[in-house]
Amino acid sequence: MSTAASCLPISSARGRLIPPLSLSGPEQMALDEVLLGQSEANTKPPPTLRFYSWNGPWLSLGRHQRNWPERWNALAKRGDLQLVRRPSGGSAVLHQGGLTYALIWPSPPRQRQQAYKQACQWLISSFKELGLPLQFGHHPARSPSESNCFACATAADLVDNQGHKRIGSAQLWRQGHLLQHGEIILNPPQRLWWEVFESEPPAPAPASIPREGLSNLLQTALHSCWPEVSWQASQITNNEWSAVANKAPNYEVLLDPSGSSTNPPETIDSTT
Q1: Cα(158)–Cα(138) distance, integer angstroms
Q2: Which of 104, 159, 201, 246 is surrounded by the most beta carbons within 10 Å?
Q3: How much is the pTM?
Q4: How does pLDDT run across 14-62, given as a tens digit for each residue?
């Protein structure tokens, strides 16, 4: 793979790879925030990356999403869906049949769109090698009333040659450190997608994209895309698990007719 456009400016030559974990939605989101906090607390923080799938269908709500259709609450109350608050911005993402990643970048460019461009280059390179060329979307920023992240593709998202959105992205910034969330569409649930968004679900990823082991292939690609980083597998520490337990309730969503939720974390500079 070509690395000319894909290398990230970093403050540490070490990189941390977190093995996949099966957790509840609030625990997954809390862990990403904890990893971001670890980056802030380190004088030479490593970039950190992890991939994860979701145990059952979850709908993650963007940090600033205050209202949503009552049918989402009804689906959750029936047990067809679980709701969780994301620390990152953007609109709702249905997590089933896809792959999620979280990238913690200690020293991104402060210009938001430039950060998106540099943070996504390794994905563009990786999927091109897998036979799926991707490029950035061209739609304007999402309307605050837009409830579905995959309803349009902005300059933060990656689309294929037919304009189909394949990877949606959202960010959380804190003290100059970046957490970028991304959802890679593989096999979206047809029926549930209609029930949640009342719209056509995205097409499944082409057969050239493996459904099993994709995270391993993408992790391997890191060594080509970021040759200056020594990526090493790293387990979550006991202190980090304790912090996850404390923060997870912040991401739980109350199921009531008004669509209100528990207060999301208030420890950020800005989000998108």
Answers
A1: 10
A2: 104
A3: 0.88
A4: 899 999 998 999 999 999 999 999 888 777 788 999 999 898 899 999 9
What residue spans of 95-237 are helical by DSSP H?
A: 112-129, 190-197, 214-225
Cα within 13 Å of Cα(107), Cβ side: 12
Answer yes or no: 149 catalytic: yes
User: Measured between alpha carbons, how far is 251 from 31 in angstroms, rounded to an integer?
Assistant: 11
Q: Provide the Cα torsion 190, 192, 197, 203; round to 10°.
A: -20
Q: Which residues of 190-206 are buried (b: 16+ CB within 10 A; e: fewer)?
A: eebbebbbeeebbeebe
- Alpha-carbon distance values, 209 to 154, 163, 165, 186, 212 (Å): 23, 17, 15, 8, 9
Question: pLDDT digit string (tens) for 191-200?
Answer: 999 999 999 9
Domains and CATH numbers, the chain: 14-271 (3.30.930.10)
- Identify the active-site residue in 120, 149, 152, 225: 149
Among all chains, which residue has been given the structure tokens 């205050």? 66
